[in-house]
Amino acid sequence: MRRWWPAALSVIVGVVLIALFVWRNDIHQALLNPELPYAVYKPPPPPLYDDVASWALLPGPVTPGDPAVDVFFVHPTTFDGGRDWNGPIDARGAARLLGHVMLPNYAGPFAGAGRVFAPRYRQASLYSGLTLFDDAIEAREFPYRDIRAAFEAFERRRGPGRPFIVVGVEQGGTLAARLLRDEIAPDANRRQRLVAAYLIETVVPADEYAPGSLIPACERRSQTGCVIAWISAPWLDFGRSRRIMNRSLVWSPKGRLAGLHGRPPLCVNPLLGMASAADAPPRLNRGAANATGLEWGARPGFMARQVGATCLDGILRVTRPRSASLRPSGGWAERLRVAPLNLFWADLEADSEARSSLWLAHVQAQATPPR
């Protein structure tokens, strides 16, 4: 026994380690599960949008040198989960990920077009996006009340008549889509002041943004008051495409999240700036960037001509980036979130600045009396 027990112990430890490696994702997912019915769950305290602490980015009063356009940015998921279905706005790890990664990579491209306002909100956890059970869906519906309140505060702070851009990414894009439908489209004044909306890595039904809609999809670069939206998949990753179609949730007329049920997602190609099935080769890619860790307002170094993209069956199929530094990496949780880089950083910057200039030029032309 004395001779064999070290070998037996080594075998047992080896088996345990192999099991932990094989089932590591399932173990991680189980650790993130609140295991509490949403009906009895008590969400964190609501943010107060008159308080500076409730904003990740909050510009001061308008000064003469400021841009004429403002940007309302709804951030993607940064809270993993665990005890809570919805994250408190001051969760330390989530706040660091927001400031260090998500803002420079996804809000940064729009800083050239206008002043960026980014509310903190009681976001649904990363875990809630892994299941279609009712508790998880309720957790994903819940943050809309915060976004609606934040948008009202955004409108009060800016002063009357200023044009604006709406940007939402992933979870934030789904929330921004409802904001467009319920708070902006029905209001003629707000609708006329909308420069454009960017719903990045977001599934929305194409039929809701058809030509003639109050807020249609962008059909050309010389268009304002329209929506640029897409959900992407690697060029040959048909498994991800199927998962997108089977697991994505969109807003029903009653304000609940439900499946697509065969409706194709809207795909506006960010390399073309329009809803089109045409191929966009890598030469049209103005610049991908990894802006992680940059101070707010700093422009990253760009890598041009990195990817091509084509809208096929409502999915933006993206070619493999030429640079290895722009390819997916990280652990299980990191791969579930939006990438800590932006393949279309410079494209979004140029598009938002061009549409803002067009909107302002149109208003100026209307205000100029004929000679």
What fraction, in percent, of the residue positions are helical? 25-40%
Tell me the strand order in the biggest sheet.
Answer: 1-3-2-4-5-6
Encode the helix/strand succession as letters. HHEEHEHHEHHEEEHEEEEHH
Total beta-strand segments:
11
How many structurally independent domains?
Answer: 1
Termini separation (Å)? 105 Å
Summarize the structure in words.
It is a single chain. The protein is an alpha/beta fold and 371 residues long. 33% of the residues lie in helices and 13% in strands. The chain has 10 helices and 11 strands. A hairpin with a 5-residue loop joins strand 8 (249-251) and strand 9. Helix 5 (144-158) crosses helix 6 (171-184). The longest helix is centred in the last third of the chain and has 23 residues, at 345-367.
